[in-house]
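$ fold --in a.seq
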Amino acid sequence: MANNLRSFVIGTAGHIDHGKTTLVRALTGVDADRLPEEKRRGITIDLGFASCELQAPDGSPLRISFVDVPGHSHFIRNMLAGAGCVPAVMLVVAANEGIMPQTVEHLAICELLGISRGFTVITKADTVNASQLHDVTSAIEAYLQGTPLGQGNASVLPASATTGEGLEAVRAELTKLAMREHLEASDASLRMPLDRSFVMKGFGTVVTGTLLSGTIHEGQTLQLEPGGRVVRVRGLQTYGRPEQSAQPGSRVAVNLSGVDAADVRRGQTVVSPNTLSAVDTIDAEVRLLPGSPALKHRAKVHFHAFTSETMASGFLYGYETMQPGTVRLMRIKLAEKIVLVPGDRFVLRQPSPAGTIGGGCVLDAHPEPRQRKAVTLSWLDQLKTSSAVGQIERRVARRGTSGITLYSLSAETGWTMDAIRSRVGPALQSGSLLLVSGDLLLSREASLEAAEAILTRLKSGRAARPSELRGQTALCAEVFNLALNLLLCERRVQLADEMVSVYGAGGQPLNAEAERLAKVAQAYEASGLAAPSVLELAQRFNLKETDMRSLVTVLQRNKTIVRMGSDELFIHSAALGQLAALLTTLRGVLMDVARFKQLTGLSRKYAIPLLEYLDRQRITRKQGDQRLIL
């Protein structure tokens, strides 16, 4: 089946008239020049596409797809649109000319975009004698030293599209390169930058692009960004063949309903609904090429990322002019919105005289607009060297007492919800992050800050109702309840007659009820998931059952404890949070009661009510005798 093909996308690069399109035609049998003007002038103006099928060493089919780019300096914007989405490059240098200006610029662009895999083909080998071919090969190899195409296993191969000389060696190199390219399961959300849009008779709107991440299925609902236009997939083709689904790393043509081709343009991106959105401000690490002009604070530049292009203003952290060959942190404000996530690469070009001056990597696509520059600079420096879990912790911490939802964190990082839940798990288990109300993430420091805000309001000595206190602290309900419960458990405040007050001067309780309330809360917290019944607690504290139920009602109202479905079993919210954190690491697993008991160390008396609670909270879903962890 075509869908089982190993596929690989590679872009061409090189100076005008060095034979890129001719070489692609010799390898695939397809003329990538499709425009009448291209055929009339004999040069590539826009992006061209072609593919061929080779054979892997194990005999399985291997599909190679070429993105052919123009070499003329006037069409560098089209070259950038093609190079922005390819994982590897085939650099083409003519034997009769050697390294030329666009060879240099194209190679620099590939480096700035982080394209480190590929090889070089010396075309028109039949136009020079053996001595000249040896000399130009040596010169090219010398020039490539210090670049990704001059290291490791990168080859320099002479070939002629006219005579066929060396084409088998080129095909063998393409096969080797494709076999080394392992597309691992990606944590990235679905994203396909568009490079073409047209109308196909009988089908309607068709868009094409390279699927960077995620999977597209026939019948799927997608979203066009920027704009938020919702569309539906009517049909799919990969490499000219109809498919039910398309995998990351493939060249894809998607037949869309819900939008006219005239309303779709190169530079837009197809994403899953309510995941990624286009942004107009980023923080990035920028490298200026040696030999380029210095870059001033607030300089205007052309910004190129994937298939997008827009004008932008660069705001240098530190304000001092950026010198050639240096690396600096910069805030970039885009004239038009583009879908960008951390780790994306881009290229900067100066408007006049036109030329590539540098590029860089996105660090933050959702920078805090009102944060002091010194704080942002320090945060970015720390973010660059942080692990995936560390990056999440830093992104949550900077939101302070407002916190951030899992969905917002997914949009901010570009990671899927599954990846977010998996990476949040260790931080929840360590206690550095807290999951509030199942969706809101808060740092431990922010929870303490919220608690101090409540305590500060109460230190005037006047008791206050919880609703009044929440309005004074400007905390959201979830964070306020969490902070108030923390203060109650630590006996720093008390709740009596629906009024909150400081626990007492000098640490002495203001009344016996507050002390009993704190002790009961501590008992629930200490018992974890195996909580005692209300009657057992009444006996332990030598209280009437009716008095104990009054205390339990207060704790339940404050969300310190949660009822499991009966009036006898209540569990501390902290224990439930730890259980939810544990289950996030097992998302997608099917689990029966016996395995849940083994996982938690609980008896059936506790396991069944807990599982029913998890079902109600949509943390698990019952499927027959098992539960699917969501």
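$ fold --in b.seq
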Amino acid sequence: MSIKYGAREFVDLGGVWKYKVDETDQGLKADYYKTGFDRSDWKEMKVPNNWYLTEVGDYDGAVWFATTFEGPESFKGKEVTLKFRAVDYIADVWLNGEYLGLHEGYFAPFEFNVTDKIRIGSENELVVRNNSPRDPTEYILVDNPFYQNTPMSKPYKRHWAKALTTIKGHLVDAMHRPGAMTSFRQDGNTGGIWQTVELIARGDVQIKNTKIYTQIVEKNFVSDGTAIVSVDVELNNSTDRIIETKLNMKINPKNFKGDEVLERIRDVQLQPGHNSFKLVRTLQKPQLWWTWDHGFPHLYSAEISVGEKGEYDGIVETFGVKKIVHDEATGHWYLNDRRLFLRGMRYFSSQYMSEITEERLNADLGKMLDMKINSIRIGSHLELSTFYDLCDEMGFLVWQVFPLHYCYSDSDELIERAAFMMREMVCMLYNHASIGMWSVFKEPKVYALPNPPNNYGRLCHIMREAAHTVDPTRWVHLGDYDEGVQNLMLGCCRPGEQNLKKTHIEPNIVEFGCHSIPCLESLKKIIPEKDLWPPNWDTWEYWGFFYNLHFGYGKVEMGDSLEEFIDNTQSYEAHTIKEQIEFFRQRKYSPVGSMYLYYWSDPAPVIGSGLIDYFGKPYKAYDEMKKVYTPVLVSLEWNKDPYIIGYEKFWKPNETFMGKVWITNDHHEDLKDAVLSWRLVRKDGAKAVLDREMILSVGSDSSQVCDTIVWEIPEDAKGKHQVLMELKSGQGEVLSKNYFDLTVT
């Protein structure tokens, strides 16, 4: 059944398709693509889908898909396009036995003109050879005692890819996935027609692409109160004649009430083939797009059509008016000329994207709002288009990283393919108001092998140039960890006993956090019962434990039982994340301007680094992070050298405990007549050793020391103590509650 939207008519070809796994890659020779080929022995699969989630399972190679459909009578005389929203990874496509072409890449939509190939009023046969191969790179054992002095057998010790060529980022090689950092790093392969397939009917003129650029107008470096909306419209005239018609645009408020409606009707002459036009209108009273915590994410809709009454083609695009600036001198961010501190989260909804629904995305983003997150970093993969729509609407600023991760080839041929896909990604996401910045590569300098490819010096620069050809306005970051960007995952990717106060800190902390073992219920779904306790370290490493990081960097003790081991890792992760957040926010703008936890949820059934495991169970870190990611935070800086986080803090009798009480205010309003109170108490009793309450004002968008606790520790003070802190507004609203644990021995 076809569905009509304006001048366009759609047929969704999703449903149950026939499929055949082609392990020996003989399908082409065996004529699988030909019309009338006997597919009676082929199995059935629902499309869209990712084949890992079906009976096909973890498979590398080609799978053939086929379906039949009736050519709608209403499509007669119209331009007909076959559109795939996304296929992972290579798609060869035939319609009625005729080859249409090939597309490489797992995330971008692609289409074919089938006007002269579709059979109107009768049956059509669509065949796809979907190849998701194992990357041919060699995996090499890392020659480093830190990685090799472990109890795992050789295949499960740390291995590193020599030079990947399959451009799938986290979906082909990364930490938290099946196979993890072993010689089996590509296990858990993704593949499949994982987004919708559509037939689209349009008139003789088709809108191929629209690019909406907005600018807040300035005069003498001061806003004049207006904004320009500039829309590039690419059209195709599929006839062999010149068509004189009208190009129409109407701009309306989308998610707010407003009287300002803009219209533009332009007479155009369309030559056969490709045509490009610009439409410009001025908003006299623009309503700006803000992150949710600094205002409202105002959105506009642009209705663009071709024809006297839009009879040829028409689309509706959503956009926002904003100005996002990366200050090169400080590394900080400005949104609409207001400095913005980014309390961020790295997000990866699933390794197997076809299982993600709008309902799931809504639930995750709703919880992020509840946790007061205002920015999301998408690292080395892409989310569903619905995700970016929701970020537009909810007011999350998105930092999008292209799917390159770790050690890729730097060959000319690889750079050509990657740069083309970079343009595809930026074109796809350009109009989203939520997109704030791009990165071209996730960790291009992170290698564990000698003589690595020169990704940063070669590939990354071409990727930046490719992004700028589509988007010359947003900041394009060459790749972690340069240009003011840093990973500080203490106890995970760096030693947990690192002295933070002697660590160089960059303005943008794009990865902080730790890792731990999921709860026993979830762990039993990952690790076979026989390998649980005592741990079979080969199995645990395969599913993401990282023996050397837990014990070498985190120095977490196992304890006497599996339950104790789980609790030890979760408690350590919770404390480490809490104290990293406090440390970075105390250094707000000195130099920290953004911070992103690694990450929200485990994207596969692995031992991960998320706040929530793959099965939806929270780690202990979830609640601890929620306490300290508030826009206003009271926290404590203690007097110890070295300054080590995550572990129990010890003092002795006759020493002096000193704690600086910090208040961090991310609001752009002063906190006037706020009430700060703190108590130093024994944990086994409610009586305060010291306490204080004071009224103070805290400046907007600031972090400052507001009081100092000094305790000359007496001889009889041995035991566990706690500093309890609370900040209330002048009206009595609790803005922040926090604690600090210390032990006197």
